[in-house]
Amino acid sequence: MLKGIHHVAYVVADLDRTIEMFERVFAMKPDRREVHETWGQEVALYALESGGTLEVITPLHENTPWAEFLRRHGDGIHHIGYAVDDVNATLEQLESKGVRLKDRRAQLSGVGWTVASIDPESTNGLWVQLVERDRRE
């Protein structure tokens, strides 16, 4: 079912400071940096040699899930996105097993990925995101 790790998403209070840290410590610069008003976030994306992506998110305002995460946990890993062949088919499989879903259908993320999330109550509090893998991967 899960084909591999598509991305790891951090939520941070200071995106510029985090970008500077990744450059200083790991000699990495983001491949993309985007503002997504609709999602209330600014995102820096780093393509990893293994094929995965590091997604670093900061909230644009206080009324976002990202700001709520920061209030509760501080900077840290928000979720891991796992590659699947077909998000909607995987959701149907999971639902048939009694797994609670946060999203009942796939949606397009702010950065252009087809995604859906499982209710963390069904995964021991871990936020699991399903990401439809590109057929080229």
According to CATH, the fold-level topology is 2,3-Dihydroxybiphenyl 1,2-Dioxygenase, domain 1
Q: What's the CATH class, please? A: Alpha Beta
Strand content: 25-35%
N to C succession of SSEs: EHEEEHEHEEE
Helicity level, as a percent range?
10-25%
Question: What's the main sheet like?
Answer: 8 strands, mixed
Shape: globular
Give me the count of strands.
8
Give the name of the CATH architecture: Roll
| Termini gap | 16 Å
Tally of discrete structural domains: 1
- Supply the number of helical segments: 3
Structural class: alpha+beta
In CATH terms, the superfamily is 2,3-Dihydroxybiphenyl 1,2-Dioxygenase, domain 1
Low-confidence stretches: none
Biggest β-sheet: strands ordered side by side in the sheet:
2-3-4-1-5-8-7-6
Mean pLDDT across all residues, rounded? 94
